[in-house]
Amino acid sequence: MISVHLIAAARPNFMKVAPLFHELKRADWCNPVIVHTGQHYDANMSDSFFEELKLPEPDIHLGIGSGSHAEQTAGVMTAYEKIILNEKPDWVIVVGDVNSTMAVTLSAKKLLIPVAHLEAGLRSGDRTMPEEINRLVTDALADVLWTPSPDADENLKKEGVSDSKISNVGNIMIDSYELLRDQIESNNAPEKFGLSPKKYGVVTLHRPSNVDNQKTLAQLTDYLCHVSQETPLLFSLHPRTRKNLETFGLFEKLNGAVGMQITPPLSYIQFMGLVKDSRFLITDSGGVQEETSYLGIPCVTLRDTTERPITVSMGTNRLADPDQLLSCIAEISQGDWTTGQCHPQWDGKTAQRVASDLYQRVNAA
Ligand code: UD1
Ligand code: UDP
To answer: Which of 88, 136, 76, 140 is nearest to 112 (CA)?
Structure first.
């Protein structure tokens, strides 16, 4: 029986960790241990996901919280190093691209613990994004790279990663959706928010490039207020975005706009219940670009680049400047948007493929 640490840190990690935890828990060769770094800590950014995705309380909680990049990274590294020395895990699995992903990888590799990265190989090519730095460092150090799509394999090969380290396993986010599909479909989320199916849009924004700069956030606020006059919008507000809207004096304007409904961060079942019946998404989230492609919902991503190009080439996603938002929404409303298709390995069986790959690697070692 090997001991495997599964690292959970921030909102987008929980729906990647949950299906794999359940799969590994069923196996007789492995003991999965959940380590929460505490990067996200509000109940609606963390606890609700543990409850809905049926994750047990974390076995280990590092309680790191918020801080600058260096503070957060160093905090996780220092705290997790102590855990490794005490617990001596056989393997560490990190997911996604948040600061904790990179920090844990650094600590583990310095102490010679093998690391596997789930959702490896994604690249935006934009090193001004903190996540791109996290992806590059994590993938350079990890022993096993589990990729969601062929473009990710190609990125890794171009960086000189040997084929033997890469396994294409598909997209674990889709496993979480399938795990909770019945509850998402029976939740009647639009009705709970007074919305009619296919007659509203959902908004999520939290990238520093969109929400940390006053001028950019003011411009986005104007455009969103414009869109909501025509099509009601539900804006699930990330804590970073709320803080900045308040600091820049924009919150009241947005909140008071005709057709605009602002909510705190929503639970996964509520959020996906709203996404699946929406007319469109306006977002800068990584995960939402994939979920909308999977569900065939038009998605306007307010970014210059994406680390998930397959959602543009195959799915329903389009990158746009704020200036293009109104014309994109007009196209969607006229039914003039690609319906897209899904990558065959986004099938809800990624956790099985990951567990089987890990089993083979453990036995081959
Ligand atoms: C982090 C990730 C980002 C990911 C996002 C998902 C990094 C560098 N960024 O960004 O890749 O897309 O999570 O949501 O790892 N805060 C709260 N409560 C919380 C958590 C955060 O109020 O539970 C506030 C704090 O003011 C904090 C700010 O949000 O300073 C930002 O949190 P942080 O985790 O540093 O970055 P995110 O913007 O959430
Ligand atoms: N999400 C949620 N409630 C919300 C907003 C998002 O459950 O109010 C989920 C959604 O499934 C999304 C995931 O959280 O794919 C990832 O969130 P986020 O956008 O914070 O991170 P990113 O994917 O950009 O790193």
So the answer is: 88
